[in-house]
């Protein structure tokens, strides 16, 4: 999307009146993807297989304004997904704590499969995914530390996550290789097992099975693309920021 299109979408989000989200329940599916389920349905329009264009993004944001106004209040649209392999998804971001952290909400604005035939409005084509009647909105919410946030004409257009350095010499060497451009982040991520570091973080934050009911279905702490992420299943932005403040 162009910068002018991003500005228009952001103006739409900034003009949202102060309202609570519609009543919903949050679930995590078999692929560990969280979604909100509502009593009301809406039509998920067909979107391109390759990217999310302006008109598709605008329609989906209108849906979010109706169902989840509090979740997206004060956020802005990221022009391109991060990482780029997440093409077709809608990313909303918000600067936190003097630009040291970034609040990131990722939405899935396209059909993922699994609905009954009667709920298919338009069938999938070579150019676009199917349009369906649904009561679900798939999402993921995380807060990450950032090295820098890149802006242009007052709009956030990109960011650089802060590299996690757990004090392990092997990982530190890997980070140095990353900075020198010897390997891609995706390649490094696939090679590194962060389970011990994540468990240490969970222990420090007193996160265990007695107070985190989803347990292994959805971890609250993760390391994605060498950056620590604090993840949330609550769609209340206010509550998430309050929870984050308690252990930041």
Account of the protein in words:
The chain is of the alpha+beta class and 248 residues long. It folds into two domains: 3-161, no CATH class; 164-225, no CATH class. The chain has helices at 3-14, 54-67, 69-72, 169-179, 185-191, 195-204, 237-247, and strands at residues 24-28, 34-44, 76-77, 90-96, 101-108, 120-122, 131-152, 155-161, 221-224, 227-232. Strands 1, 2, 3, 4, 5, 6, 7, 8, 9 and 10 form a ten-stranded antiparallel sheet that branches. A hairpin with a 5-residue loop joins β1 and β2. α1 (3-14) packs parallel to α2 (54-67). The longest helix is centred in the N-terminal third of the chain and has 14 residues, at 54-67. The chain is globular, with a radius of gyration of 19 Å.
Write the layout of secondary structure elements.
Blueprint lengths: L2 H12 L9 E5 L5 E11 L9 H14 L1 H4 L3 E2 L12 E7 L4 E8 L11 E3 L8 E22 L2 E7 L7 H11 L5 H7 L3 H10 L16 E4 L2 E6 L4 H11 L1
Antiparallel strand pairs: 1-2, 2-7, 3-4, 4-5, 5-7, 6-7, 7-8, 7-10, 9-10
Secondary-structure element string: HEEHHEEEEEEHHHEEH
Total number of strands:
10
Structural class: alpha+beta
Sheet bearing the most strands, described?
10 strands, antiparallel
The total tally of domains equals 2
Mean pLDDT: 83
* Strand coverage percent: 25-35%
């Amino acid at each position: 999307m162009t910068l002018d299109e991003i500005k228009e979408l952001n103006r739409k989000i900034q003009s949202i009146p102060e309202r609570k989200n519609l009543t919903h329940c949050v679930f995590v599916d078999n692929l560990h993807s969280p979604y909100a389920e509502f009593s009301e349905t809406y039509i998920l329009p067909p979107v391109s297989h390759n990217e999310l264009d302006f008109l598709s993004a605008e329609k989906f944001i209108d849906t979010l304004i109706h169902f989840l106004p509090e979740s997206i209040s004060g956020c802005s649209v990221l022009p391109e997904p991060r990482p780029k392999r997440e093409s077709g998804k809608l990313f909303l971001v918000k600067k936190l704590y003097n630009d040291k952290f970034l609040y990131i909400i990722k939405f899935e604005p396209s059909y993922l499969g699994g609905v009954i035939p009667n709920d298919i409005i338009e069938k999938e084509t070579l150019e676009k995914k199917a349009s369906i009647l649904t009561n679900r909105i798939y999402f993921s919410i995380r807060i990450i530390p950032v090295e820098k946030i890149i802006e242009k004409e007052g709009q956030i257009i990109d960011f650089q996550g802060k590299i996690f350095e757990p004090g392990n010499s092997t990982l530190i060497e890997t980070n140095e290789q990353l900075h020198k451009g010897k390997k891609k982040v995706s390649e490094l991520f696939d090679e590194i097992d962060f389970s011990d570091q994540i468990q240490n973080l969970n222990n420090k934050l007193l996160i265990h099975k007695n107070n985190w009911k989803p347990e292994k279905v959805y971890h609250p702490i993760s390391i994605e693309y060498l950056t620590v992420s604090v993840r949330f299943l609550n769609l209340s932005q206010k509550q998430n920021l309050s929870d984050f403040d308690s252990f930041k």
